[in-house]
Amino acid sequence: MMPEQQAETPPNMEDARGKRLIVEAYQRLVQNGAIKPDPAQAGAAQMLQRFAQRLQASRKKLGFIRRHLGWTASPVRGLYIFGPAGRGKSMLMDLFYGTMPVASKRRVHFHAFMQEVHTGITAVRKQGLDDPVQRVADSIADATGLLCLDEMEISDITDAMLVGRLMEKLFDRGVAVVTTSNSQPDDLYKGGWNRDQFVPFIALLKDRMEILELDGPVDHRRNRPRHQSSYLSPLNDATHSAIDEIWHTLREGQPEAPLVVRAYGHEHVFPRFTGTALRCDFQSICGIPFGPADCLDLVKKIDVLVLERVPVLPPKRNNEARRLITLIDTLYEANSRLVVSAAAAPDELYPEGDGAFEFRRTVSRLEEMRSAGWWNDGDSASKARERTKEVP
After folding, report:
1. pLDDT computed for residue 163 by the predictor
2. Strand ranges (DSSP E) for the chain?
3. Given this model, what pLDDT does residue 244 score?
């Protein structure tokens, strides 16, 4: 069903420094220069600390009730953090994750999580078992007491119809869910097909999760020194020549060979692969049905993607824009390096159309991924978040 989860041994939230581990971890990042001071983030860290304490008390109460009364319904409430891109939602969620003394916990991108759920449901159906959603939910709950889902955005009708049933069952099993999103709950799946069937999930979120808005004035991903050769525009002879030179450097004299990406029984072949670097143009990867599962298999096989000829996309090319969103999200979560040649700056690539709101996150991430820190010394925000998962 779902892959086996590994438990982690976290620091003890009840130690001598006690009740302020999240706040102290945030303050250390500021003092060490890993992040810049941000009053909105500092306030959110305080709220996360209070939430963590309530969650701990709630879990102790739930354990007592289960032991003595056999009751399985959960008093645990989750946390839904939303706000514009680049405000530090994922970083703060990871500070929370790293300091929570929960025996079994997991942090995963929402799209990757839903792909695993679909795979689990398919496996249950192949076995001829009934109620596959309940069985997958039970499998998750058996392995995971705390589930942190990054970047909850729903654009797929299949996910929209599934996520409400799944989350309700996880809540009922006592799984504490923390998620980040660019959208407030009322705006999830906005304009989606059959959205009226999705609306009960929004009510469930409001009932079973605390809502925290993080809306600072600064997109921190934009305020980084740029790596001059990782995002090239406009599309002209000089840009194409620069891409050729970068590719020559990345190849290190190795020959090119095809790369095969496989997911759900189908495959895509990209001819220009060498070592752990792939070169392809926009249309060959975003102009075809290349979905989240394909992206996940791709990032397992490459460290660097050279993506050429990204155009300015009009509203009618919304499907290609959504594929680009998914691709960048997956590369970002994998800490992959990205070289882009594009017709315009990131914030001009898809300014309007279906999914333009979600594309703002892509713009923010493209800005960070073109920074000198992302390329040169590994001091990207993503890697800083990785370091905060084991806060001393």
Report:
1. 93
2. 78-82, 105-109, 146-150, 176-181, 209-213, 231-232, 257-263, 266-274, 277-281, 304-310, 337-342
3. 94
Structure tokens at 180: 């980040």
As beta bridge partners, residue 392 has none
Nearest-angstrom CA–CA distance, 49 and 234: 46
Q: 3-state DSSP call for residue 112?
A: helix
Kindly report the CATH number assigned to the domain that includes residue 257.
3.40.50
Q: Are residues 24 and 161 in the same domain?
A: yes
pLDDT per residue as tens digits for the range 286-304: 999 998 889 999 999 999 9
190 burial (CB, 10 Å; 0-12 / 13-18 / 19+) is middle
Q: Is residue 389 part of a domain?
A: no
In a domain, 171, yes or no: yes
Between CA 156 and CA 163 the distance in angstroms is 11
Domains: count for the chain: 2
Low-confidence ranges of the chain (pLDDT < 70): 1-19, 59-76, 219-228, 376-392
CA distance 269 to 384: 34
Q: Which conformational region is residue 372 in: left (phi greater than 0), alpha (psi within -120 to 50 degrees), or beta?
A: alpha
Q: In this predicted structure, what is the pLDDT of residue 228?
A: 60
Rounded to two decimals, the pTM is 0.67
Q: 359-372 b/e with 16+ CB inside 10 Å = b?
A: bbbbbbbbbbbbbe
167 plus 264 within the same structural domain: no
* Long-range contacts formed by 125-130: CB under 8 A, 24+ apart: none
- In a domain, residue 162? The reply is yes
Q: Are 175 and 46 within one domain?
A: yes
